[in-house]
Write a structure and sequence with these properties.
mainly alpha, two-stranded antiparallel sheet, TPR-like_helical_dom_sf
Amino acid sequence: MKKTYIILALTALTAASCKKDFIDLTPKDSYTDATFYKTVDQFKQADIAAYAPLRDVLVNDYFTSEMRSDNTIYQPYPSNRGTAYLYRESISNFTNTSTNDYVNAVWQHCYTGISRTNIVIERLKTTDFDAAVKAPIDGQAKFLRAFYYFKLVRLFGGVPLFLKEVTKAEDAFLPRSAADAIYNQIIADAKDAISELSAPAKFPQTGEATKGSATMLLAEVYATQKKWADAETLLNTLSGMGYGLNANYADAFTPGNKNSKESLFDIQFLEGTILGTTPNPLPFHFLPRSTNTSIITGINTNNSSTGGWNTPTQDLINAYEPNDKRLDASIGIVEGTYNASDLFVYSANKSVIGYTPAAGKMGVPYIKKYEHPPLIAVTGSSDNFPVYRYSDALLLLAEAQNEQGKSPLTALNTVRSRAL
């Protein structure tokens, strides 16, 4: 009898141990792909995650975009021919290959953002949220997807067009679509974003994409396609959304004036070292390479491995009209000398206006508008990076009007009168 009870007990224990819920490995203290996308707040968090790659795109994109223009150059580093330096130099020299890490980073981070927007857009369709709740979530995701693809198509031409969440390995590999197909999708997404997003409710804004952000994006797309009348129509709607110029040009870049009425869309940064902060590293990248940047930044920071890039050219400096206030607000001069290691030893911070080097010194231009010392953390600043400003919209409007044989002077002079 005793043996019978033991056998029954072991049988019961074995049966219990084989129950499916006993070996369920889904963690109870964290979200999974299957349990997360359920509430409005979770979808809003997913939208925020789709914004995050913008910062990674930015810190690589100025190599592939700005430094390939006539506006800026790289500062060679003859004493260090490491791979990273050669990669950056080759981009500026138009000699980069497909293995270049900085070019590849723009591609990779854009597609990271696209992947996240696709998840939001597709999964949002399966919810029973009210239409008014869904609209801003979907609109922001579609603005971001359009933005990422617009960056890609201008740099690479036709690219793979992912519009669905990738759930299987075989879905992760698509051939390139024609550039026209990419532009058609960008336009469709931007139009949806315009219809689903609202104009800013107040200034300063939250930093999220708005109807104005999407309007400016679509207008730039149309201008790229030389659809000047369509671009003009869109751009003329922005003033009715409350946008306008700040009193001073430099106000558009100060951390204390973020997301102002002049901001159509900024990449957001927050200085600090605690969890959740996202400092902007560009103030250090845009200074001459040195072991001590304190004359400019207010803190003793060594940017010898991360500086010396995107240096303004003399051609750009010469392009400013006499008395243009934007020149002194945008570009400064670091005065000093190069040492034997090809690092710049700062001795003074000078104005670019009428600059003449002191005896035995030389001046190196730097992008000044993101430098707001003293910086608290050596990792970067709280400066946002403006993607679209209302002044950009006015200048694009003037171009669209001029291309149609109309007078561009009203829009053009609105910007010019502030500068002079």
